[in-house]
Amino acid sequence: MIRFENVGMRYGMGSEVLKDISFTLERGSFHFLVGPSGAGKTSLLKLLYLAHRPSRGLIHYFGNDTTEMSRLELPKIRRRIGVVFQDFRLFDHLTAFENVAMPLQINGAKKAQVAGHVEELLEWVGLKDRMHAKPPTLSGGEKQRVAIARAVINKPDLLVADEPTGNVDPEIAKRLIHLFSELNKTGTTTVVATHDESIVEAVGAPVLHLNKGELEKQRGFKYQPYDKAVHAAQGTIDGPAEQSRRAAILQGGKQDG
Amino acid sequence: MVNIFYRSARFLPERAAGEGLLPWVIGVMIFLCTLSFSLTSSLGAGLEKWSESLTNSLAIQIVTENEAERDSQTDAVMRMLEATPGIKGVSVAAQSDVLALLAPWLGDIPIGSGLPLPTLIDVELEDGNALNIEALRERLKATAPNASVDDHQEWMNRIIEFAAVLRIALTGVMFMVILSTIAIVIFGCRTSLATHRESIEIMHLIGAEDSMIARAFMDRYLVHGLLGGVGGVLLAGGLLLLLANIAEDIGQGLISASVPDLSIIGWLILIPLISGTLTMTTAFVTVRRALSKML
Questions:
Q1: Where are the domains of chain A?
Q2: Where are the alpha helices (DSSP H) in A3-110?
Q3: pLDDT values of chain A reduced to their tens digit, one per residue, 257 residues
Q4: Would you say A23 and A75 are in contact if contact means Cβ atoms under 8 Å apart?
Q5: Distance between CA atoms of B197 and B205, rounded to whole angstroms?
Q6: Minimum Cα–Cα distance from A75: chain B residue
Q7: Which residues, in sequence order, are bridge partners of residue A65?
Q8: Cβ contacts (< 8 Å) between B205 and chain A: which residues?
Q9: How far is Cα A10 from Cα A52, in angstroms, rounded to an integer?
């Protein structure tokens, strides 16, 4: 469903920071993107969330060739992509609720629908009691969860997360990866860029390994259900009833209780 | 700042650096623009009113050194004028009045000093008269060879010419002020775009279309334009009322004819709306153009 073919990328007239990148991400797959600093992870993520155009090669999204797409057509593709930025990039003057509501508002959702859905999602990330707080008053982990809620509120087809566990303690990191796994189970293709080898090892999901702008190896690059591995790695945080309730929220249904 | 419409996503902070001054600057511009506009329109209307009052009269002058000749020509002219249709009244200016008119050039001269004075005949025309001045001139020549008609046209033309230049200058000022306002809004918008570049980028990445982003700026600049417009018009309106009062006290010729016509104050209400539309449209065009250069 997402295909990169011999993609190269450069900034301005500089040399290529990504060279001959080719891979396919199947629908509902989960991948880690790893590599040393300066390897081009952020550049590859920028291509993935359509913040930059490739200098060569082809990128296909959901059956559309985005390299040939005019900028006016990009918003409809971007609405199918959720992004969790490393530095969160929340709007500081808006509350957690308003931040999470923004993609729905952009999508033209009605005011009444927005309220219910945002509250449910903030509850899912454990921030219902902080929904009227503004980002400067939130801790790093809380901001991260608001950013995740904003990224997933539109039930994206692709979720891209840049170092989502970089600024949080290990316990929160486990919890965040667990959130991603729940979303992934609903069919969202997920790409997580990380430096945290322990999480990669523990989860055991396919890995895109970047080095000096090239994909070095694609370890286990075949989609596999991995939520079992996630749970094994982190221990079960929530019981099955809680998990199915959260899955229902993600799918847009009402929680059971 | 209020979120005027739910349609505009509130991704811009309510108070942005430097933007607070914008309504004040726009207010000053609108004040200058309103003054130019009011003075231009009242100058035109005043001049028309004034020239209308002058065309209802004319003066006939009989100049000859021979006193007997002058008196006989005066009688002949008076008879001819009284028989002419379209003339409401005719009067011969007294010698003392003629001497008073000459006093600035010749100083005080006593009556009967032997100085040959012209006879001045003041002719009052009927309202809406269609008197043919050229025909009157011809008939006067036949009746009194030393008589000439002064219908004020020559010096009226000079004043009309001066007023026309003044009107062009004021209209020029008005357009320059409008252009400056547009330039200020463009500059303000570009600064806002630079300040909020990251927010705009996030909005784009979560799927916002250019029109949504532009609407947020449009709403903001509409409010700036309305506020500035109301402030500027109130200030200009106050000054115009003051000028109208002063001119009424003076109550003389062109000044009283050119005082701001209070009926245009009704039109002034439209100025804040025009100002709001102008700033909003300028913001829209500036932002859309800048966004089209982003990915």
A1: 30-50+71-250
A2: 41-48, 74-78, 96-106
A3: 899 999 999 998 889 999 999 999 998 899 999 988 888 899 999 999 999 999 999 999 888 888 888 888 999 999 999 999 988 999 999 999 999 999 998 988 888 888 889 999 899 888 889 999 999 999 888 898 899 999 999 889 999 999 888 767 777 778 778 888 888 888 899 999 988 888 888 777 889 999 888 988 665 544 333 444 444 444 333 445 555 555 555 555 443 33
A4: no
A5: 12
A6: B207
A7: A60
A8: 49-51, 78, 83
A9: 10
DSSP letter assigned to residue B20: G
Neighbours of A191 (CB within 10 A): 22
With tokens 């009402």, the residue in question is A254
Candidates B9, B199, B205; nearest CB to A105: B9
Q: CATH number of A30-50+71-250: 1.10.3300.10, 3.20.20.70, 3.40.1650.10, 3.40.50.300?
A: 3.40.50.300
User: Between residues 166 and 205 of chain B, which touch chain A (CB distance below 8 Å)?
Assistant: 198-199, 201-205
A72/B9 CB distance under 8 A? no
- Whether residues A79 and B292 touch (CB distance < 8 A) is answered with no
The residues in B 6-35 lying below 8 A from A, measured between CB atoms, are 6, 9-11, 13-14
Burial bucket for residue B254 (CB in 10 Å: 0-12, 13-18, 19+)? middle
What structural domains and CATH numbers belong to chain B? 19-52+156-291 (no CATH), 56-151 (3.30.70.3040)
Q: How far is CA B94 from CA A58, B61, B100, in A?
A: 103, 13, 10
Q: How far is B19 from chain A (nearest CA, A)?
A: 16
Interface test with B, best of A78, A105, A157 (most B CBs within 10 A): A105
